[in-house]
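Example S7 (structure tokens).
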């Protein structure tokens, strides 16, 4: 316990003044302190030191918990703000003020409408030519998998064939494409 016998100068406070005031606010601490001051013995000083150490440990624990809770509260607030900024898209609303088409209509392809073609999806003329030279089934499987983002299982279900047949066909098509493309450009 740090106590100075000098009186602090007017207007200046001892750095541990608030700590000492907090310690002495509790009656049991004040009694132990007064006993150590009036009867300065080794036993009384040990009691005072033990009481102060316990008090100081509790303050440190409280400070640690406060700091930790504050940190997590700030992070929670940041995450909540980010999540709040993300609004759920209502698909029935118009895509923009200028358009009357809803977001849902833009996402869902009509049966007679192709969402993308190979020409729109691929900008490399060598790759486009290589794909166009593939058998029709392989082109269809590649289109469903890579352009329409269907899994092998979904492609198989849509075409009523086995998933293994789709996987083998796609792998075969990719091997053919790799053999046609220059080494650095192969998928």
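Recovered sequence:
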């Amino acid at each position: 316990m740090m106590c100075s016998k000098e009186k602090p100068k007017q207007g200046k406070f001892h750095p541990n003044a608030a700590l000492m005031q907090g310690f002495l606010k509790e009656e049991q601490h004040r009694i132990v302190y007064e006993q150590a001051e009036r009867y300065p013995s080794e036993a009384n000083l040990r009691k005072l030191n033990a009481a102060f150490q316990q008090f100081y440990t509790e303050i440190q624990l409280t400070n640690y918990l406060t700091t930790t809770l504050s940190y997590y509260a700030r992070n929670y607030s940041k995450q909540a703000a980010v999540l709040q900024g993300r609004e759920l898209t209502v698909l029935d609303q118009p895509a923009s003020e200028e358009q009357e088409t809803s977001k849902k209509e833009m996402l869902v392809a009509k049966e007679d409408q192709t969402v993308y073609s190979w020409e729109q999806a691929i900008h490399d003329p060598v790759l486009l030519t290589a794909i166009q030279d593939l058998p029709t089934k392989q082109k269809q499987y590649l289109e469903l998998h890579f352009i329409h983002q269907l899994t092998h299982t979904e492609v198989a279900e849509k075409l009523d064939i086995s998933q293994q047949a789709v996987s083998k066909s796609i792998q075969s098509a990719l091997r053919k494409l790799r053999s046609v493309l220059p080494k650095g450009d192969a998928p």
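Notes on this example. The chain is about 65% helix and 0% strand.
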